[in-house]
Amino acid sequence: MKTLLMGALTALTLAAAPAQKGGVRTVEITVTSKGFEPANVTVKAGHTVRLVITRKTDRTCAKEIILDDLGINQPLPLDTPVTLEFTPSESGTLRYACAMDHIGGIVTIQ
C-alpha cells in the first residue's frame, strides 16, 4: 500500500511539474469542474514560462483567465488550448483567477 501511495504521489508531482523545452518552461493547466488544475505551479525567475490552459467544462465561471499583475485578461474557449507566455524577472507570486475571482491559483516564482 505504501509503495502504491508513493507511486501515485510521484506521478502527481511529475504531472504538475513544468516541462522545459528550448529554454521555455511549459505548464499545462486544465479548467475542470474542480477549477484550475493544477491550481499552484512553481517556476524560476528569469526563465520564460508558457502556460497552456484548456477549459474542459462549461460548469464553472472560469471562462477566462486574469493575471492582473501582468495585465492579462484572456478568454478560454471550450476545448481550445490557450497559450500565455511571460518571463518573470523576480521571485514572488502571481495570482490568476476567473473574471468573478471565485476560481483561481498561484504561480510561485523562485
Brief account:
The protein has one helix at residues 2-16; strands spanning 19-21, 24-32, 35-37, 40-43, 48-55, 64-67, 72-75, 82-86, 92-97, 104-109. Helices cover 14% and strands 47% of the residues.
Radius of gyration: 14 Å
- How many beta strands in the DSSP annotation? 10
What is the helix tally? 1
Q: Which word captures the global form?
A: globular
Strand content: over 45%
Low-confidence parts: 1-16
What level of helicity do the residues show?
A: 10-25%
Give the distance, in angstroms, between the N- and C-terminal Cα atoms: 34 Å
User: Structural class, judged by helices and strands?
Assistant: mainly beta
What's the helix-strand series?
HEEEEEEEEEE
For the sheet with most strands, the description reads: 5 strands, mixed
Q: What is the typical, i.e. mean, pLDDT?
A: 86
Description:
This protein has 110 residues and is mainly beta. Helices cover 14% and strands 47% of the residues. The chain is built from one helix and ten strands. It has one helix at residues 2-16, and strands spanning 19-21, 24-32, 35-37, 40-43, 48-55, 64-67, 72-75, 82-86, 92-97, 104-109. Strands 1, 2, 3, 5 and 8 form a five-stranded mixed beta sheet that branches. Strand 1 (19-21) and strand 2 (24-32) form a beta hairpin. The N and C termini lie far apart (34 Å). The relative contact order is 0.22. Mean pLDDT is 86; it is low at 1-16.
Write the layout of secondary structure elements.
Blueprint: H1 2-16, E1 19-21, E2 24-32, E3 35-37, E4 40-43, E5 48-55, E6 64-67, E7 72-75, E8 82-86, E9 92-97, E10 104-109
Parallel strand pairs: 2-5, 4-10
Antiparallel strand pairs: 1-2, 2-3, 5-8, 6-7, 9-10
